[in-house]
Structures are given as structure tokens and as C-alpha cells.
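During the reporting period the student researcher (J.K.) took over the structure-prediction task from the postdoctoral fellow and processed the backlog of single-chain submissions. One of the processed entries is reproduced below for the supervisory committee.
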Amino acid sequence: MKDLLQGSGDKVTLLTGVQSYETDQGSGKLHGLCGDGSTRSIDCSQYDVAFVDGQLPGCAQGPELVKILTAFGVACCGISTEGHINAEIIAQGAKIAAKKACVFAALFDQKLSSSIVQKPTRSEIARLASMEKHFSSEAFETLRQETDAMLSLYL
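J.K. obtained the following C-alpha cells:
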């Protein structure tokens, strides 16, 4: 996903979880976990968009993280593999959400982008929901399993 976003010209900071966070005095700071085991602190106000998984290592799960990020103006896209968690992510302020494999496919097919996440139209939200419905159907079972296997290499 990072490569797809960077390929579209986005600057990407990849955090795999949140070690701690501070939301006082009008600023939001995340002390994030990186894939290599290191940590990185970020100022939420310096980011426009976040793709947020539902189940993360550390002290904040997806819905809670979305609530923090949106409070500082970050547009969020939920990418949990669990539909009910994406519903919670939307309830906490995410603009759009779908299962991770569907979001990956939509980014790859250029049906989703950071700019769409910032201000999705009803038709863009409906298109992603339709993609997710079709992607979850029996006809796509083999493709879904192959995509999930590929994604698991990077999680």
C-alpha cells in the first residue's frame, strides 16, 4: 500500500501501531511503532490522510486512533479486515472504509486515492462499497485469498 501511495505522488509515513499519544494543548502527537521495531513521533496536524487498520499493536486500536486523528483534521480511511471494526472506524469520524484487500485493489486500480479519502463523494463511497460487496462474493474467493496471502507478507 505504501508503494501504491508513493507511486501516486503521496509522501508516506508508515506506522504499524501506537506506543503512546498526547492530545493536550491543542496538539496531537503520536509515538508510533514502525515495522522494523523502531519508534517515530509525529505531529498529527502535519498529516492530511491516514489509512487506519482496526487491530494495531500498542495502546490505541483503529477506532480510537481515528478519533484522535480526525480531531486534528486528518481524513481517515478504515482498512480493517473486519467489517464491524470498519463500521466503528466510520462512527469515530473516518470518511470512508472497506476491507484491506478491497482498499488495496481500489488503490491499485486508481479508484481510490488520498485526495478521495479527504473528500469522498457519495458516488465514490458507493463505488468502494460495491467493490467490497463484489470482492466478498463467492465468485472472487480465489482472488481474495491470493490478495490476502500477498498482503500478509507486508503486515
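The committee noted the following: The first strand starts at residue 17 and ends at 22.
J.K. will present the remaining backlog at the next meeting.
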